[in-house]
Design goal:
By secondary structure, the chain is mainly alpha-helical. The protein has 24 helices and no strands. The protein has helices at 2-27, 30-42, 44-56, 62-82, 85-102, 105-121, 125-141, 145-161, 165-181, 185-201, 205-222, 225-241, 245-262, 265-281, 285-302, 305-322, 325-342, 345-362, 365-382, 385-401, 405-422, 425-441, 445-462, 465-482.
Length: 491
Amino acid sequence: MPKRNEAEIQHATHYLTVLQHAHNHYLHGNEKLSSGLAQFDQERENIRLGQKKTAAHVGNTDAWKRLCIDYADHALDFLALREAQQERMYWYQIALDAARSLEDRAAQSRNLSCLGSVYAEMREFEQAIYAYKQALNIAHEDENRDGEGAALGGLAGVYIAMGDPYHAIELFEQRLKIARELSSREGQGNALQGLGSAYVALGKTRRAIESYEQALSFFRKIGDRVSESKILCDLGNVYGGLGYPQQAIELFNQALKITGDIGDHRTEVNTLSSLGIEYKNLGNINGAIEYQNQALKIAQEIGYRYGEGNVLGNLGTVSYIQGNLLDAIAYYEQRLQIAREIGDRYGENNALNNLGNAYCELGDLRRGIAFYKQALTNFGEIGNLHNEANALYNIGRAHKKLGEYQYAVEAYQKLLNIARQLGDLVREGTALGNLGYSYHKLGNIHLAADFYENYLKIAHKVGDDKMKAMVLNNLNVIYKETGKKRWQWWK
């Protein structure tokens, strides 16, 4: 038996050395990153066997416990790219138990943050927050600034996923401050990338681009191709949202080349899906479907449920554009089911809004309103004012189509309040114009005129001539009905 134990510890130690060598290459970045990944892939089964041996003997001696911790430390980057969630959780939990037994608090903090990242990916946000807060407390007590920064960044990412970008920004700024104190380019890049995502969630696209570009610069300096591909995809999504599809496609293709080189399949799914969106925006529906189907196939093969849900939603939107509303509804229902299973609140609300759109387009306005109201409730719970405003607009529009102008007024008044809270002049103008129209239909000419006059002021502020012409036309109709002359302000 002693000889067998000796052979097993030699095997585990040897493949830990192989893993360390691969990880050292990976950390050097660029070509060496790819070389490190290739080494890991070549010895992956032996490395996994070595780790399992350490896990089997972890209760025996401190040497086995230390091996367990070292395996998790040096496999961290590889596990994120190559292993499923449950496998990663197994590695980190074993290492955490070993660290607690050895009273290695730095290792405890590291592995708690790693567990937090897996829980966050699984959309188990309460457990993710619990793990990150434990990691943060340990690191803070020990004045472990690196561990503190990692836990803060992880917590911030969870708050973005939960729809709380304001809280996320506070934490990412703390993360950035620590990274600057430590002169950690990786930490600064991670914090800036997180800030970019938070600004996107708030609709602050220019600030998002600035943050993403700063992060990209850091990642390129250290040769972190994994993070570089993710940032390129993030930037592509922002430029696509701003109406620059060619720039977005160029960025996505750069990201796709990297993901293909390093085998980062989750980012590959996200990038292919984003390419599909931009081809849809360009009117190339066949190209859009092709990219979405490629993304769906990979997502299903690797069990990437979050990505699978996003792709199904995008396929639903393509079907909606084609007028295949029943197909669109089927895709959106699958999207909704996955989002609820994994706790993806944004995905759930996106699906609810899209189902509302599809049923309204089919003429089932009542059912459409019911879906919009579910989305509105959810957006209110997570404090996402931009999407809450979109849901209110949709509810008002549906009631207006039904001729239920009093209900439309209620929705548009709430929309107006949110638009003013956000300082969003375009949404404010939309709300004022629809309130003017609805009050006109209700026979309240004076209130209608007041709202239209305020709408006209917004049109002047934003310099929208088309908007001005439309409002003036509506005002002329009202003043003709009342027997008044053209509005004096415009004489």
